Amino acid sequence: MIFQRIFAANCQPFTKMPGPDPIFPIGNLWDFLGKQDRPWEVIEKYGTEYGKMSVFWMFNQPGIILNDAKLIEEVLCSRTQDFYKDEPCGALIPVLTRSSPNINNGDDWRRTRFSSPFTQPWIEGWRQNQMPHLVKFLRGWCQRMNTLTAATSVPLLNELQKCTFDCFSIATVGQQLSEVAYQDFMTLATEGSQRMLGIKKSKPELKSKGVATRQRFLRLLKDCYEKTASKSVDDAFDLLSLSLRNQVPLSPDELSAEMGNVYYGGCFSVPSTLVTMLYLLTQHPDELAKLIVAIRGINIDHDYDALLGCAPLDNALRETMRLLPSVPIFSRRVLPTDGTELGGQFLPQNTNLFISSWLLQRSTQYWEQPLVFNPDRWDNGVAEANPLGSDYFFPEGRGPRICLGAEYSMFFMKLVIATLLQTSRFECGAGQTYNAGQKFFFGVRMPAGLRGRFEPQNDR
Questions:
Q1: In Å, how far are 19, 264, 340, 393, 442 from 272, measured between CA atoms?
Q2: What is the largest CA-CA distance in the chain?
Q3: Least CB-packed of 167, 271, 290, 321 within 10 Å?
């Protein structure tokens, strides 16, 4: 074939590996055209058709798809020294700065990861102490949504994204931030998303307007730090206050930036999952009815253990994250200095690997009727056998680089759903397909087109 002859040096290591036939000169790029908002579906098709390890081509560059839990465990868990995180590090450094462990490797990653407030022993107490403060805000948000959607439906993702930003502000710095702060955050996130998708070239620095926006956002967080440090309130519940009281080993600038990293880490994946869950519950009213009964008796202002221990709520959230994960693709690269062997196949240095939670979490080899929304599948020990970050359930990643805020996001999403169900009735995506208006933003699958309505629960 022409492709293999022209790119013989690139192709030679992969001659025995299955995969779709590449076309000169674009490789398999054609399969992805028209699916820029759903690239994980192409990855799923390749992985399903070609087995546990396959190769595709973007021009003359190979991409390896892993569709095997054992191989994925090696890459993400037991052999992390042979691989590193490449994308989207270069694209996001100017947006996040190097304060984020998500875009670091090696010693920089270890220091920022294990200095993060989310790795500290007091972090569960922080989650628990937030409940009354967050519930107060969420009840007000539900009431506002009841009024806003009384006459017509609205796109729910936008509303839940802003709600998540406000709640994260209360939880991290103890106060809501301004509308300007939210717009600055979204401006920076949009810049980062466009860089990740290749819409904008990843240069080492932002344009002057972007630099000014980043400086303004970081300055606001530093002001929060200085204000919190000056008053030193012993009973303050927010993450910044607790980090200062417990002397988290980060400099003032690093700790301020770490508060900002909380937004980037969850303000897209969390509302995506919440909208998806509301959509699935709308499509399955019997499951919604069971959930309403289950959360009816929980004191969501204070009963942390009852909230986390509510099996129907946990099951429905897990099933949402299994069936339609918000982050469907993860990637790693072989070290740039040396190749390595994986699954009996030699991989040259800097080979790109694609790992799809979407693929394994919907595998017929492991899950019965995997395309069916069935929260009850998590009963009878299945939840315990498939914790977050396990072989066939890793919607937030797995191994030492699993999302730092994974436990917090689970707690927060349960609190949002429980508050909503105790306060309002809702419908989401009625008469719509799930993919309506979907986009891929900041590495997250966003169901942006789904519309919804709310009304007071006491109208039942």
A1: 32, 13, 36, 18, 12
A2: 71
A3: 290
Q: What is the pLDDT of residues 226-279, one digit of tens each?
A: 999 998 677 788 999 999 999 999 999 999 999 999 999 999 999 999 999 999
Chain-centroid distance, C-alpha 85:
16
**Under DSSP, is residue 333 helix (H, G, I), strand (E, B) or coil?**
strand
Distance in angstroms (rounded) separating the CA atoms of residues 279 and 273: 10
C-alpha span between 386 and 190 (Å, rounded) = 34
CB 74 within 8 A of CB 41: no
pLDDT at 459: 46
The two structure tokens encoding residue 52: 């546990």
Note the pTM of the prediction, 2 decimals. 0.96
Distance CA 328, CA 41 (A): 9
Joined tokens for residue 414: 């349960």
* Spatial contact of 277 and 317, defined as CB atoms under 8 Å apart: yes
Element (H, E) at 99: none
What is the phi/psi pair of residue 353, to 5°? -115, 135
CB atoms under 10 Å from CB of 158, counted, come to 12
**The dihedral sign for the CA sequence 363, 368, 369, 371:** negative
Q: Which of 136, 181, 178, 182 is nearest to 159 (CA)?
A: 182
The structure tokens 């253990």 sit at 305
d(CA 403, CA 391): 16
